[in-house]
Amino acid sequence: MDSIKVSDCMSRQFVSFSPLTPVVEAAIALVKNELLGGPVVDEDGRLIGWISEQDCIGAVSQVAYYSQRVSVVEDVMSRVVTSVDGERNAMDLADDMKKQRRKVYPVVDASNRVLGVISRRHILKAMCALITKVEKEAHPPLSGKQTSNKPTTHF
Fold it and tell me: Once rounded to an integer, what is the mean pLDDT over residues 49-78?
């Protein structure tokens, strides 16, 4: 896993927001895309903040209760944002995520332009894929009936 970089497992599909986007529109985009949050960028795509579901909930409740659409993203966004470089080791970031309880980070280039986002799920998916690959190489399937201890999905 040491060879996996953040850029290998990050998502390049994300929703970004202008600081002047109404909070209700940002919340709708987060919900529609099943995201916990997203980067706030300037006109050049540089990271200037982060807006989360938690940031949105107060402003959206104002609209729900009082029909007041007054807040824009820059009013509620977090201005101090921890971002990561795509060249960073994904396992090191996973360790940081365990300590800091952060779920999602924007991934930026040297000019602070947002390239994507990385979440705990992205890293976990990469780790599971690596483990599966290593196990298949180390333990080829045996002939005959196999019993399974794999999880069963119920929907």
Answer: 87
| Beta bridge mates, 84 | 107
Count of beta carbons in the 10 Å neighbourhood of residue 9: 21
Predicted TM-score (pTM) of this structure: 0.80
**Total number of residues shown for the chain:** 155
- Is the predicted pLDDT of residue 138 greater than 50, yes or no? yes
Q: Report d(CA 81, CA 69) in Å as an integer.
A: 26
Q: How far apart are CA 44 and CA 142, in angstroms?
A: 55
Q: Are 28 and 20 in contact (CB under 8 A)?
A: no
For 118, phi and psi rounded to 5 degrees? Answer: -135, 135
- Tell me the CA end-to-end span of the chain in Å, nearest whole number: 32
CA distance 43 to 143: 59
Measured N-to-C along each axis, helices 120-138 and 90-100 cross at an angle, to the nearest 10 degrees, of 130
77 versus 148: the higher-pLDDT residue is 77
The pLDDT assigned to 1 comes to 43
